[in-house]
Amino acid sequence: MSFVSLFQHRAGYIGGGVLNRILSDGKAADFQITVLIRDAAKARKLEPFGVKTVVGSLEDTDELTALAGEADLVFNCADADNIQPTKAILAGLRKRHQSTGRVPSLIHTGRSIGVLADDATGMYLTETVYSDDDVDPLYKLPITAPHQEVNKAILEADQEGYIRSYLVLPPAVWGLAQGPLVDAHIMNPQSQEIPALIIASIDRGRPGMVGEGKNVWSNVHIDDAVLLYELIWNAILGGEEIGHGSQGYYFPENGEHQLYDVSKAIGAGLKDLRLVEDPEPSSFTTEELDKYFDGVSILLSLGSNSRCRGQRARAIGWNPRKTTGDMLASIKPEIQYMLSRAS
């Protein structure tokens, strides 16, 4: 069996975590692992790990089709919103099915923060909570919802029968990643959301939030999220029947938090480190949203509610350990880590 892992080229946080786990689970030597990566220097660093690398990008659709056409299992940990690379991967997997008679598998990474997000702009808590074992509300989300066009294309391919698809939709992923790929400076060790809030808070001299920070996100530690990927790929390799296609949504979540609580923990950490005088969060202005983030789009992200429950994930044996309390306690050490890297 051949793996083709399509990692997020600029960051590599989730994709790097998945590759770290594949390389450490003792089975990697049995397979050919191919990684598409944008950075040629990182590609060279991967060679000692026994990984075949192809330097390229998601815009290289012919390359994507060719690589997927050689694979029995594809991890797509790259752009969850770009339909053209997805179509290229599916075209390659269709060719794989036609040439071998086997049904290849696609483990695709989306983001529940995007696809489940509302327009709360930090002003209220929603009572809407999605579950990965209640698929009708998920499938009926509008095609205009973030990631939904990509997700539906994958589900249709599964329905046609030439792939088995597994949609892993992490919420807010947190925690400093560790492992050999981090040590080799191949994998980004940090998530996106909390570090972005830390940077903005230091610059403005006070922790910030969208609106009143009343919106709620589900969350998961990076190591716990990767364990769900491992359960899924082990089930595939072992011939175990687990849900795929429309029955193959998986939410790795183990708690939830209000944005206000995250910003308050950032403020406490910055106050302890004498980086701010006032640790109480205040609302980002429109100008600050444009400066630190991406203006309107951040209102639909950091200001949104995105609540989910991983019932199907737990039903296949996923047992996460890290909690929301652990996440809040990790914020000051993450600030210290960021300061050490900047010095």
TrEMBL record:
GO terms for cellular component: cytoplasm. One of its GO terms (molecular function) is aldehyde dehydrogenase (NAD+) activity. Residues 12-97 form the NAD(P)-binding domain. It comes from the Eukaryota. This is NAD(P)-binding domain-containing protein. It comes from Dichomitus squalens.
